[in-house]
Hints:
Number of helices: 5
Mean pLDDT: 87
Low-confidence stretches: none
Structural class: alpha+beta
CATH topology of the largest domain: D-Maltodextrin-Binding Protein, domain 2
Amino acid sequence: MIRAVRALREQSPGLEVDLREIRPGEVAAALREGRVEVVLARSAREAEGLRVTALAPTPAVLVVPPGHRLAARASVALADLDGERLLVWSRPGTPFTDAMLALCAGAGARVTPVESPVIGAPGLHDLESLGAVAIRPEGVETGEALVSVPLDGEVTLPLLALRAPEASAPAVERLLALLGG
């Protein structure tokens, strides 16, 4: 995502891009009221009346504290997460958390979701204290002395663009094209 924003700024040097974090319950109102032009999300809980475009999925990695049993591995299969505590940013019963739990379960890994008390990126500062691991988009800075371990296979995270029903600005269309939409 950051690479796409940089590329967009290179294409249009005078363009102003403002990145904001918006809680899921605020997305529809922010788009309908014109406070934002596009929202990039991993899931869309309340998308009624919005245009939702599936973008290219993002490769995922496992993030662990340096002393974790999986930290020294060259790569990790999702099945290796069996018995782990998985850091999530919303409670079970929400779309993205449920998708993460289903991803692990589909690989035969029973994980215990542990909700982070901190919302937002990178939000991994409590990973070690919670005794948890996290599945994050590849290339996202952790901001901590944590270890990113590649996941075996093609493990990806969904990426969606949510927009108001009316026409998008040309810069938004260029951004979505850069992100594979």
